[in-house]
Amino acid sequence: MAVNVSIEDRIAIEQLVTEYAYRLDHQRWEEVADLCTDDAVLFIRGREIVGQEGLADWAARRAERPNRRTQHQMTLLRLDGVSADEVHGTAALVLHIAKTGGGGTYVDLIGEYRDEYVREQGGWKFRRRRLVPLDAY
Amino acid sequence: MAVNVSIEDRIAIEQLVTEYAYRLDHQRWEEVADLCTDDAVLFIRGREIVGQEGLADWAARRAERPNRRTQHQMTLLRLDGVSADEVHGTAALVLHIAKTGGGGTYVDLIGEYRDEYVREQGGWKFRRRRLVPLDAY
Amino acid sequence: MAVNVSIEDRIAIEQLVTEYAYRLDHQRWEEVADLCTDDAVLFIRGREIVGQEGLADWAARRAERPNRRTQHQMTLLRLDGVSADEVHGTAALVLHIAKTGGGGTYVDLIGEYRDEYVREQGGWKFRRRRLVPLDAY
Q1: Which of A19, B108, C68, C83 is 20 to 30 A away from residue A34, measured at CA?
Q2: Which residues contact B101 (CB under 8 A, 6 or more apart)?
């Protein structure tokens, strides 16, 4: 029984997905945790990031590599309503990375995030994100 | 005389365009026909696919190549209302393909779909899709 | 004090950003000026384009290179309301170019536009666009 997702909620979730990418690409890793619930779990490239503590650790590790410049292109947001306050969905990622020591970029990864979004007092947040590479669709 | 496209219709058509890409990329080719009218015609890379029968044939041929992994990135949806139940539009495509026998992807095609969308009882569907490559804009 | 951006305004600005890319990619450079205020300033790849006169000059120069085929992929629209009639925002760009003398494309530039949008009688327009490359985020 799919629940309809209102336009307001759709756009709020689209903004959430955009904001996640924006913060990564602008090296504001420590602010990604604000987009996630306290019990969030992210499965990203073989790593499992658990809760606010896990997100803080992950952000600290990321900050050690400031030269890695990324552009997370997000498209194809596809949502399924579960309840008034829970939506599941997928969002396609093309991850571009700037080459070091010169110009140009390359595509590092293509895949999709399989997400669970929940509404909390402050708005929509990620409760789960699992990044699945294209060859594992 | 352009007809205004409501936000509800815009988002429904955006979801239709997303769903088409999603089903291709998840190898659910036989479900693409559900997104098309009975008299739909698709012009894709030199091939003309006509109606539900044509779509069934096309899906069967596609299913013979399950190793071809694709990501259809859709952006730049641009709509022109024709009537309350008909919208024409374009949607830009960047088609990524996973390289076989190893990692990585490459861009196989860039172009735009030139579409006709019509509202039927079950919602918005494709009546026409013509994929035009970038060098033929 | 951020001002809420209504869904109607968000979608209108999204269409503005799409239309800018569409006109560039369809070589309708002289129509880009219609998307900009009379006092608009665009900072694009080391060039400063000022006002309607500057836009006309820029369009004329662009028209001298009709063989340069582009696809401006726009994603990650992120908006901050400033007032009822002014919104600031960013929009990520991946610029694809068709190779000359054969097939294929390459990514020429990745970056983001940092924009100021204002509402005029005819709708939303660009007052400022600054294209910032990925390595200068």
Answers
A1: C83
A2: none
CA distance C115 to A132: 33
Q: Do A96 and C92 touch (CB under 8 A)?
A: no
CA distances from C69 to B77, C66, C75, C95, C105 (A): 19, 7, 20, 10, 9
B12 touches chain A (CB under 8 A): no
| Beta bridge partners of residue B123, listed in sequence order | B120
What value of ipTM does the predicted structure carry?
0.96
HSE (side-chain half, CA atoms, 13 Å) at A129: 27
Decide if pLDDT at C12 tops 80. yes
Within 10 angstroms of residue A63's Cβ, the number of other Cβ atoms is: 12
**Residue bearing tokens 């641009």:** B78
Residue to mutate among C5, C7, C76, with most A CBs inside 10 A, is: C76
- Alpha-carbon distance of B110 to C98, in angstroms, equals 9
Structure token pair of residue C91: 């929009």
For residues B94 and B76, is the Cβ–Cβ distance under 8 A?
Answer: no
Of all residues in chain A, what percent carry a pLDDT higher than 90?
Answer: 92
Which residues neighbour B75 within 8 Å (Cβ) at sequence distance 6 or greater?
A75, B91, B92, B94, C73, C74, C75
CB atoms within 10 A of CB C8: 9
Query: Alpha carbon C55 to chain centroid distance?
Result: 12
Per the CB < 8 A criterion, the answer to whether A39 and A53 are in contact is no
Mean pLDDT to the nearest integer, A44-65: 96
**Would the CB atoms of B76 and C75 count as touching at under 8 Å?**
no
DSSP at C107: E
CA distance C126 to chain A (A): 21
Cβ–Cβ contacts within 10 Å for residue C30, how many?
A: 15
**Is there a contact between C134 and A71 if contact means CB atoms under 8 Å apart?**
yes
- Enter the pTM of the model: 0.97
Task: Give the residue carrying structure tokens 């698709």.
Answer: B42
Q: What angle do CA B113, C15, C54 make, to 5 degrees?
A: 105
Confidence of residue A1 (pLDDT cuts 50, 70, 90): low
The two tokens of residue B101 are 């026998």
B57 CA: distance to closest CA in chain A (Å): 23
B84: tokens are 């309350």
CA distance B130 to C58: 32
Tell whether B6 lies on the interface with A, counting CB pairs under 8 A.
no
Burial category of C113 from C-beta neighbours within 10 Å (exposed 0-12, middle 13-18, buried 19 and up): buried
